[in-house]
């Protein structure tokens, strides 16, 4: 259980850092028009809100503290 908390904490810290720094982008494709074999698509790029990254950073730090505070059995 301790190892799981530590690994989860590190993963959350990395994901939170990437999102809060604006490095992570999400791309979505939307079909605008279709005329026979011809298709017109639009690619839309969005960046998640930095507040989500800060929440993940806090959760990762909390998970690391809990993992380090647990006793080995």
From TrEMBL:
The chain crosses the membrane at residues 51-70. This is DUF3185 domain-containing protein. Keywords: Membrane, Transmembrane, Transmembrane helix.
